[in-house]
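Bit of a strange request maybe. I'm writing a small parser for structure token strings and I need a real example to test against, not something I typed by hand. Could someone generate the tokens for this chain?
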Amino acid sequence: MSYITDITYTEGIYNQMHPSYLSLACAIHGYMPPDWKKEFDYLEIGCGKGYTLNALGATYPESYFVGIDFNPAHIEEANLVTKKAGLDNNTEWHCHHIEEHLDIYRWEPKYNYIALHGVYSWVSDETRAAIREIIDRTLVPGGIVYISYDTFPGWSTMLPFHELLKREMKSKPPMFALHSLFDKIKDLREQGGCFPKAIDPVWERWEKLEKMDWRYVLHEYGNGQLRPFYFDEVYEDMKSVGMTYVGKTDLSGAFLKLNSPNEWWEVLQEQKMPYREVLRDFYLNTCFREEIYIKGGIPFYFKEDKRKFYSDIKFVQIKELDEEEEVTYAGLRFKFSDNYKKVLDWVNHGRTLQEMEEEEEEILIPISRLFALKYLAVYTGSDAGKQYALTDAMKRRGLNTGILSSCGYAYIYRDWE
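Reply from user aminoacidic:
Good idea to test on real output. This should exercise your parser:
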């Protein structure tokens, strides 16, 4: 049993794949980012229904976007949205397996960004090798790779669910297999089974799956090729094709000392990469990683370069802050202090990142946490589409119309004015 092809995947727009955010994350982690304000080429491997890529195509009409996916239903839906949004001139789709794509298109380096969200853990070893070859051959020096995958140790408690679902699917269609397994899970709990007791309170995570989108559950857990990784395995894979690890997209690793208890920070400081990050995953019980790699990777050697980059960065608040809410970030629990409210006040008054840092040197710490907790999005003065709004009202309406007409669970691309 391999990848599920007769049921399409869920829909979504993933803001962490946006070029301006990836470039900002690079800068905060200390690396010179690509200049996304100029024309660029962007490849998404395993693009699904293409909502993220279509949104980016509408936001950056001067750049070029390519999506590949082996599922014809995904590509058909992506094409439908592209045509209705009038994005045919800068967005294209290819329906075939990644290995076939490598054989058909013998490209020279051309891409500034390559993204693969929810792909690397769900394909065969041969396909992962083809992905690395595409990165090696088609990513330009200084280009960025965004990659996400299931990881240990957090995923270890979900492997038995994956194995049970695989066995159910041997004799039943996917939907029937899933419902059958949920019934058995309830029986296990009610009859006092030893396994639920052994992994309690993680058992709650199993039970919550029944309330999630069944398409997600089937694709996530019913894939016969599913393989979670330890961080150092992916780190070495990327290193083998000349990639330098930048950091996690949630930015927590950029301020490791401040995002770790003092005693644990001392332990981590003694370790070298990549083992240090593996240990950190054990502290956080990480089950899913989203990372950025850069081809080559030049650190910011001069403060002037960083200041120039920061002077063009602004933010938009996308969620109201609850001062009484206690939140968890990188394993630490805290409430929002006046410092966080001050950041949001500056954001809403149009301050650039450079202006905020001049006012307060450690401003990047609350900003990184607000990003990770989805209170902020990034845009630049020259990024006419900001991050969420599109450059042209007609394309904006076209994109929304395309999405509405092509899926049952429509995600409207929001227009922030």
